[in-house]
Amino acid sequence: MTEYFKIGKFVTAHGVKGELLLKHELGKKTSLKGLQTLFVEERKNSFLPWFIETAKIRNEEEVLIKLEGVSTREAALRLTQKEVWFTEADVKRFSAKSSPINLLGYTIVDQENPIGKILEVIEQAHQMLCRIEINKKEVLIPLNEDTLKKIDHKKSEVIVKLPDGLLQIYLG
User: Fold this and answer.
1) What's the whole-number average pLDDT of the chain?
2) pLDDT tens, 100-135?
3) Residue 73: is its pLDDT beyond 90?
4) Greatest alpha-carbon span in the chain
5) CA 80 to CA 2: how far, in whole Å?
6) Three-class SS string for 54-103?
7) Nearest CA-CA partner of 117 in 129, 127, 132
8) Distance CA 151, CA 156 (A)
9) What is the DSSP secondary-structure string of the chain?
10) Exposure of 115 by Cβ count < 10 A (0-12 exposed, 13-18 middle, 19+ buried)?
11) Which residues, 6 or more positions from 73, have their beta carbon under 8 angstroms from its beta carbon?
12) From CA 153, how far away is CA 170, in angstroms rounded?
């Protein structure tokens, strides 16, 4: 089964020919050259593929995208505010090596106990939150100077020391 990772969302329609402005978290300017397909989550866990006609860099975190079959402003508006997802391989291909989004797919390890794979990285002012699932329940793991111990890129692991009781809050 293919895993998908959220990289941003379509924030607005641009012009009258159906272009969309994608605000992404890839951590660098990119024209997404070579990317053929992106995915939009129409309903929870239902990812529909959209084929890219053109993509142009707008700035460090924005790309103008023209999708196949979207040729009017009205059609583009239906996709605004929708989250955009890439496959894991495409995330690794297009994101900056130092970007937090590169932690997607890594395993969170608390004191040598693996607790889950990172499904989403949420950046905040003083910390990052990593969304994982344990027993079909969403759990947010804070990464900050107190909790983060090490990132092992070779093993694709994020080693943490979680505050006592944090997991019990989510799991009961």
Assistant:
1) 91
2) 888 988 999 998 899 999 998 888 888 899 999 999
3) yes
4) 54
5) 24
6) EEEEEECCEEEEEECCCCCHHHHHCCCCCEEEEEHHHHHHHCCCCCHHHH
7) 132
8) 8
9) ---EEEEEEEEEEETTTTEEEEEE-SSS----TT--EEEEEEETTEEEEEEEEEEEEEETTEEEEEETT--SHHHHHTTTT-EEEEEHHHHHHHS-TTSGGGGTTPEEEETTEEEEE--EEEE-SS-EEEEEEETTEEEEEEESTTTEEEEETTTTEEEE-PPTTHHHHHH-
10) middle
11) 13, 15, 16, 17, 18
12) 27
Q: Tell me: the pLDDT tens digits for 12-39?
A: 999 999 999 999 989 899 999 999 999 9
